[in-house]
Write a structure and sequence with these properties.
binds adenosine-5'-diphosphate, 4-stranded antiparallel β-sheet, alpha/beta, globular, 6-stranded mixed β-sheet, transport, 7 helices, ABC transporter ATP-binding protein
Length: 232
């Protein structure tokens, strides 16, 4: 079963000369798999993640996410898919500075029409799950980098997505804090989620099941690994 599929995807930006950020990418990501994306700066990693995360649409080609053809959806339907099928974690956390941790985690549920009481209960549950049950009232500037990223992970999970996308989630964290975030993702993988993670760090990428190497907007090669595997 396929979680995400890309078929001959091209994404072209026009800033004077056209730039093919992705140039004919085809890729199948099975459900419940753990994929790392590597490649030099400008190779198209962020563009790929934005397309899979339904934050943007391709110039050419087909993308399906959770069995749905993204290119055939309206903007509104894509927003819905983004909430419920894919959760997105960014390198820079992207939390709302004026909202508390709890409010940040609860926010995506607003767009799903979930009632206030249920939103809060669910957000509390997720904060507990990432080990921040006692930090719900703190604003982002009152939290450490690792705590902020854990809030961001909780927010990405609040609508129970099957697929979790992470763009350099440990890029702004020290090694030990990064390790805590990685083990959160590995827990999610072990519980059946599909993980797709961009990283610059080979030792992080080596923990996935496969590494997709991008170069100049194309897949250079795919490396199959043992991966952390589900615990047995
Ligand atoms: P990576 O994440 O691997 O660094 P990106 O996907 O950010 O690569 O970028 C791939 C190429 O597309 C680069 O040449 C970049 O300059 C270009 N690019 C990315 N986003 C945009 C944009 N919004 N407008 C114009 N060019 C872009
Ligand atoms: P990353 O470190 O994840 O590769 P970048 O610093 O390359 O991120 O880019 C951050 C974001 O800025 C990208 O996701 C892309 O949407 C946008 N971007 C990248 N290159 C350009 C560009 N040349 N023009 C406009 N926007 C760009």
């Amino acid at each position: 079963e396929t979680a995400v599929s890309l078929s001959n995807v091209r994404k072209t930006y026009h800033l004077g000369e056209p730039v093919h950020a992705l140039d004919g990418v085809s890729l199948e990501i099975p459900r419940g798999s753990y994929t790392a994306i590597m490649g030099p700066s400008g190779s198209g990693k962020s563009t790929l993640m934005h397309l899979v995360g339904c934050l943007d649409t391709p110039t050419e080609g087909e993308i399906t996410v959770g069995g749905q053809a993204v290119t055939e959806l309206s903007g509104r339907e894509r927003t819905e898919l983004r909430g419920t099928e894919v959760g997105f974690v960014f390198q820079t956390f992207n939390l709302m500075p004026r909202l508390t941790a709890l409010e940040n985690v609860a926010l995506p549920q607003l767009f799903q029409g979930i009632g206030a009481g249920e939103r809060t209960d669910r957000a509390r549950e997720l904060l507990e799950r990432v080990g921040l049950g006692d930090r719900g009232d703190h604003r982002p500037n009152e939290l450490s980098g690792g705590q902020r990223q854990r809030v961001a992970v909780a927010r990405a999970l609040v609508n129970d997505p099957e697929i979790v996308l992470a763009d350099e989630p440990t890029g702004n964290l020290d090694t030990e804090t990064g390790e805590q975030i990685l083990s959160l993702f590995e827990d999610l993988y072990a519980s059946g989620h599909t993980i797709v993670m961009v990283t610059h760090e080979p030792h992080v990428a080596q923990r996935a099941e496969r590494i997709v190497h991008l170069l100049d907007g194309e897949i250079e090669r795919i490396e199959e690994l043992e991966g952390v595997g589900p615990e047995t």
